[in-house]
Fold this sequence. Notes:
Helix content is 28%, strand content 24%. By secondary structure, the protein is of the alpha+beta class. Helix 12 packs antiparallel against helix 16 (447-472), helix 13 (403-412) runs antiparallel to helix 14 and helix 14 (416-426) crosses helix 15 (431-439).
Amino acid sequence: MEDCPENEISDNEDEDYSYDNVVDVSVEDLMGDAGMAYATATLKSRAIPDSRDGLLPIYRRILYSMHMLGLKSTGPFKKCARIEGDTIGKYHPHGGAYSSLVNLSQQWNKNHILIDFQGSKGDIDGDKAAAMRYTEARFTPFGESFLTNINKRNVPFVDNYDATLEEPKVLPVTIPISLINGVFGIAVGFSAKSISYNLNEAVDSTIALIKNPELTIEELMLILKGPDLPLPGLLEIENYAEILRTGKGNVQFVAPYILDEEKRTIEFTSIPIATGKIKLVTDIIESIEKGQINNITGFNDYSSMDKKTGTYNFKLIFTYAKDENPHIIIGNIYKYTSLSSKIPIRSIFIQNEQLKMLGALDLLNDFITFRKETLLNEFNFDRDKLLAKLHLMSGIMIALNDIDKTLSIVKTSKGSANARERLIEHYPIDEVQAQAIVDTKLYKITEEEIVHIKEESFKVIEEAKHLQNLIEEPHLLNEYMIDQLLASKKALGRERLSTISHKLTDYSKEFVSDEEVVVVLSKNGYIFKEDLRQYRLQSRGGKGRQFNKFKEGDEVKCITKVRNNEELIICYSSGIVRSLPANRLTSKAKSMNVYFNETKEDEIATIIQRSDEGNIFFLTAKGRGMKISLSKFLNIPRNGRPMKAISINEGDKLIAVVKDVNNDEGYFVSITKKGMAVKVKSDTIRTFVSRAGTGVNHHSLNEGDEIFALESIHVDESVYLLMDNGLGKNFNESQLRLTSRGAKGVNTIKAGSDAEIIALFRESLAEQVIFISEQGKVFQTSLSSLNPKKGKRGIGNIVMRLDEGDKVINATPIERDEEDQKSGLALTKYKKNEIWRNCYEQK
């Protein structure tokens, strides 16, 4: 290696170098720009489909390589290794192409497969295809149609990656593939996932848009009824118009099933697209073992593949226990497995070299514009070819009209070049025509052949005129496109496999049983539910049946009745609320820690049934009250996170929460442990517009007293009071003096009595009431027989007889439906002497 010339290197350290062309650049900016350029190039060249042909670059290059290899749908197969080699060697140097080639042949992944495959192409169980050295492929008629007339240069071509070959920028598809075969692509910071539609409906939509360029989304919805996947099933779509308009949204796939109630079997006949069946079966078994899918006595996979047709017959069969509701089981199957799954739609395409989210009308318009350009390129190509042929034929006809002179010129010429020159001098022809005359053996042409040439020239003229009309007349071009679309529909279309519903089903609720349940909460925060039918009615004055305390030091906090498919609002003494679906509770008592991340300070005040309408009233132990619309609690997080309902002052706590059953036409009655009652008109209490306020002074207290109960009372309705000594009484609300907000109230307990109020409720709730005593007895009765004549200051009637030293600690009304009242369903606890301790599950 030669040394650098000495005069180019200076040893002078003090020499001043100037860099006039150097520009300071931030490394951060440089890396950002370079990274964005790389990401964009990656997206366009690898991961995102073009809006015109709906193909990923790898798919396009595979198909073009097969075209160049001559792999027609009616021809022989060729080794996939050869196709892979041509694709990545000539056009796609970014990685292997075999998995993409296989994907284009799998009918469970594509509405219409593009490649006819020989050998194992994998299966829906998740098994992979055989190695490419063993498998072979060729076009299907559908795939072959993607390259129709590409030899006529009907689409733009670009240089390949090393500029040694050319490849098509898009393929000349004849139908809107961007809608028909869904595509998934992922790259740097972007992912595209378009969904498939039915070919017949996509073609009809295209024709409708050609005829009416002002077609609206609403009109399109009547034609393009919804997505259509390769595997049958129900597709639930909400805001379908928005999905068509924007190309963004979600679709819920629901696998179809066959229910045989005589055999007690549930047979699922399909699974979601891109879901491996082996993984699905494994997940189902795990869900059964975890108890998420209950009452299953058997589960088997009888699925099989027809090796001749390649179609897959799904058969996943569940057997369920006798007397169980199969629809509840189906709901849990959908809830805990991917047999019901959400399919996201993100229709990102390359449009005019830009990445865009495109709706259905955008894609159809792009296809129509592209198809017109493709056809015009074909027509121009064919017309130019016909005109060139006609040009040659006209020259030959000139020569034939003067055949003797023409032959004389050719014979006496010194060569073909001289013959051309002499013919051009003698006849009104150009060099191309002269060469054609020289190349044609005119002396062999018969009279019959001359007539044939004349007739053919007339046909060529007519064909050229027809093509020129198609080029110049837009309505003729539209008619031609429509005819081609209808022919493709007839040849390639199939019936829809997906059923469409425009209503989303919440499978966490829809198949949950709606029977009435009793929810029981202990002071230490344990909760469980029981079927309401496990209780029966007893006469007033009874002692009830024995059940032990929860645990030593624990006792019942509150009892409420809801339906199993409803939600509970858990109200805490600190003023926060949480949402808990009743169907999540079990018959075994579990700590609230199982459902929420509780803290020691999170003492539960009460539980109420969730409702979407009306007002709710919060009341604290020190008499602060706040009325607010239930609509403010529609968005309580479903994940157990708390929502602030009311701000609680230091030293105070939330004690009671009730719904305003009067819609501001009755009263709120609050009562203290010492029996001081306040009755305030509902419509005089201001409704707060936002949560988290501290409320207003609603009930003033005597020293040592505190709020214990709150109820919403109808006008002229009776009020029921229950005390810890087992006595109860009722009186009309009119016997309670109407007070202003903030009053101390009127006394409702007979002077000298040391009894404390443990419950207050309105008349409509008095038909069914559960009592629980400190010594662990549960008793349920109707209070309708209480003597109202004794009034609010009377001593009351005996409701529950107590043993010495015992007292009532809780009394909860259970609101009954009319149907239940007629059937005599009522309350008594459990079977014989079964104790509630057995319901416990350790924390």
